[in-house]
Amino acid sequence: MDPLKYFKKIIEQTTILRSPRQRLSTFGQTHITYLYVSPIRGFKDRSRLREGSVIAEKPKIITPDMFKNRFEGFGKEGETMGEWLTQKYGISLRGLEYKFRNENKSTHIEHSSPQNLTHELEKRIDRDEFSRSALICGPDSTWQFSLMKYIMDESIASFVENLRELDEHGFFDLPEDTHAQKKKKIEELFLQAKQNKMLLPTLGKKLHDYGLFKEYEDRFFSLLKT
Question: 199 and 103: one domain?
């Protein structure tokens, strides 16, 4: 089967019933626990319940090569699925690298249909027993791929906030951008000091702090003399 059609079919069969309120952290690891319910072929009154967690590493600023080899613990075909997700969604996350590791804690059979089991788990989530867990229902044999799609959705939902926080902390500043910002600040201080000579010491200090005093020395002393 064409991989595109194969992966698309898996995604279409996957339903995210609940997602934790937390987003992926900008400056540290994020642990997202999950409950994955899948039907067992030939048994309408049986379900498989997988419990585990996905560890999302702190996002890093990178070049455009995105999600290739970013998934660990998602099965033998995880790399192929990762490449497909990169082609389909990677452009939405251009500039940041998210890396994930899956840790499946337990897998067991439940004497309940998938519909009844997910309904019971939703009630337990509402009672805060699994308030920080994602609840996913999807295919049994390809459950890792459904989980990868879910964590990709979480990355896209977290991306804007992660990007904003990194930008606020100056992680995207290029050297030339920083220099331009410093010169802009100096120009603003010159205008202010021209109106209020009490600001000259502040201007002088900022010129020294920025290493720009030599460049503006004549202009500074001219203002000082007026």
Answer: no
CB atoms within 10 A of CB 57: 16
Give the whole-angstrom CA distance, residue 156 versus residue 147.
14
At 180-217, the pLDDT tens digits run 778 888 999 999 999 998 899 999 999 998 889 999 99
Phi-psi region of 75 (alpha: psi -120 to 50; beta: other; left: phi over 0): left
Q: What is the pTM of this model?
A: 0.62
Cβ-based neighbours of 45, under 8 Å, separated by 6 or more:
111, 112, 113
Do 49 and 136 lie in a common domain? Answer: yes
Model confidence pLDDT, tens digit, residues 28-84: 889 989 999 999 999 999 999 999 999 988 887 754 444 455 677 788 777 777 777
Residue among 132, 133, 136, 155 nearest 144 (CA): 136
* DSSP state, residue 138: -
Contact 55, 29 (CB under 8 A): yes
Give the other-Cβ count within 10 Å of 47's Cβ. Answer: 23
Torsion sign, CA atoms 87, 88, 93, 94: positive
Q: According to the model, what pLDDT value does residue 160 have?
A: 81
Which range of residues forms the domain containing residue 108?
3-168
